[in-house]
TrEMBL record:
The lineage of its organism: Bacteria, Pseudomonadati, Acidobacteriota, Terriglobia, Terriglobales. Coiled coil: none annotated. It comes from Acidisarcina polymorpha. It comes from the Bacteria. This is histidine kinase. Keywords: ATP-binding, Kinase, Nucleotide-binding, Phosphoprotein, Transferase, Two-component regulatory system.
Length: 287
């Protein structure tokens, strides 16, 4: 039994690292874009400061001469020349914009890094109280490069929901699998965004000691004849080489066997699919 448990843990860890590896290039791109904003705006602000610093220096000279009652024509002309060369109206408009974009770029990078840290959090032997809404938001940010070209992601999260006793790294893995699967389903339905963006909806609700997460897509749906096999190990509806068939099987083990929850799906051909994950807030309390 010990060997079996160790093998399962190693398989889960391997699956998680595989997911991180597959998303690595996209994450790098997601970080590079705001970093480029920060870099470009930093160069602009440095150049702008050179202009502003010259104006400030000459203005200080004007103030000094004026106090002494000996403001020279050459100093006035120098200040006038500085203002004409500076294009003050342009700087007044562009500097605040550059500062805002720099702050926003830094915020985006921090958000992505925080999501990466949360997702890659080392496995813990013990369950701890976790915020599933925050886990969902982190996973959406972490996987953005997978879904942004094919779908919009909409969330409706119950902010009154309590913390859930769980192993966060495992739940993150389940969430990532469901969101990536939803993106793939939408992409297959809309020719990878060429027919317009689809929609992925993520929702949380809390009732009777259980939190239920739903991940819905408006893709083509899961064929009725394979729905009963969707959680079987090595079963996949994806083209050969596009999936291992381990993701949903692993999700079922994590949710049902490791956390005492439930995972199921509802699907309509041509309309889309919704996966549900229902977890007890405290698995030690009988339902």
């Amino acid at each position: 039994m010990a060997n079996s448990g160790l093998a399962e843990e190693q398989l889960r860890q391997s699956h998680k690292m595989e997911a991180i590896g597959q998303l690595a290039a996209g994450i790098a791109h997601e970080i590079n874009t705001p970093i480029q904003y920060v870099s470009d705006n930093s160069v602009f602000l440095r150049e702008s400061w050179t202009v502003i610093n010259r104006i400030v220096s000459v203005a200080a000279k004007v103030q000094d001469e004026w106090r002494r009652g000996a403001l020279s024509t050459s100093t006035r002309d120098e200040l006038d020349s500085c203002f004409r060369a500076a294009d003050i109206d342009y700087l007044a408009n562009e500097i605040p914009r550059a500062i805002d974009e720099t702050f926003e770029g830094a915020r985006q990078v921090a958000k992505i890094v925080r999501a990466m840290n949360e997702f890659a959090h080392p496995a813990s032997e013990n369950k701890c109280a976790c915020d599933l809404n925050q886990a969902i938001e982190n996973t959406i940010a972490f996987s953005r490069n997978v879904w942004k070209y094919v779908a919009r992601v909409e969330t409706s999260l119950d902010r009154e929901a309590p913390l859930v006793l769980c192993r966060l790294d495992e739940i993150n893995q389940v969430l990532l699998n469901l969101i990536v699967n939803a993106a793939h389903a939408v992409g297959s339905s809309n020719e990878n965004g060429l027919q317009g963006l689809g929609t992925i909806r993520v929702r949380t609700t809390f009732a009777d000691g259980w939190i239920t997460i739903s991940v819905s897509d408006d893709g083509g749906g899961v064929p009725e004849d394979v729905r009963s096999r969707i959680f079987e190990p090595f079963f996949t509806t994806k083209p050969l080489g596009s999936g291992t068939g381990q993701g949903l099987a692993m999700a079922r083990v994590i949710v049902e066997e490791q956390h005492g929850g439930r995972i199921w799906l509802e699907s309509t051909a041509g309309t889309g699919t919704t996966f549900y994950v229902s977890l007890p807030v405290d698995p030690e309390i009988p339902a």
